[in-house]
Amino acid sequence: MDERLEIELAALRPKVLSLARKFFRSSGLDSDPEDVVQDVLLRLWEARRQGTEIGNAEAWAVATTKNCCISAWRKARRGTLLPLRDETVAGYTPAGSLEEAEAAASVARALEKIPPGTRHLLQLRAKGLSLDEMALVTGRPKGSLKSSISAARKEMLKMIKTQ
Q1: Residue 55 to residues 6, 49, 145: CA-CA distances in angstroms?
Q2: Greatest CA separation for the chain
Q3: What is the 3-state secondary structure (H, E, C) of the chain?
Q4: Residue 98, domain CATH
Q5: Neighbouring C-alpha atoms within 13 Å toward the C-beta of 83
Q6: Are 72 and 55 in the same domain?
Q7: Domain that holds residue 125
Q8: Phi, psi of 108 (to 5 degrees)
Q9: Does 3 share its domain with 55?
Q10: How many domains does the chain have?
């Protein structure tokens, strides 16, 4: 890594960490602010590596930190809005729960057969990353990512159907 970029990232780290901690504290999220710090610094590194001209790295890092924190908050909020299932919900049966467990096991077995690189793409997508974010992380074009994910999903469906 370029020594100048390394120094710049080290200088930005405390500000990004402080901002993420304040956000998580005020929003009541249990998320680890270190995850946001790593994500923001990785995005900056990737942007610089790709030749993106960033005039004010601190302003860019602050804006990106806010966006990452808001994304984490939205993901957590989406998770809490999903209905919890218990015996009182109409249509719920213990057999249905068993079927869901078997389906999850089938998906896990199919995932194990997918090549590690493709599995990583599926995991990034499952975490809620957009194609733009994935392109920054992986350095691959969005079209390539979209094709790889689509092909992997089709392959997994075939594997699950044959199990």
Answers
A1: 17, 15, 29
A2: 61
A3: CCHHHHHHHHHHHHHHHHHHHHHHHHHCCCCCHHHHHHHHHHHHHHHHHCCCCCCCHHHHHHHHHHHHHHHHHHHHHHHHHCCCCCCCCCCCCHHHHHHHHHHHHHHHHHHHHCCHHHHHHHHHHHCCCCHHHHHHHHCCCHHHHHHHHHHHHHHHHHHHHHC
A4: 1.10.10.10
A5: 7
A6: yes
A7: 93-163
A8: -65, -40
A9: yes
A10: 2
Per-residue pLDDT of the chain (163 residues; tens, 9 = 90+): 578 878 888 888 999 999 988 888 888 777 788 888 898 988 888 888 888 888 888 888 899 999 888 888 888 776 654 444 444 444 555 555 677 778 778 888 888 888 888 888 888 888 888 888 888 888 899 999 999 989 888 888 888 888 7
124 with 34: CB under 8 angstroms?
no
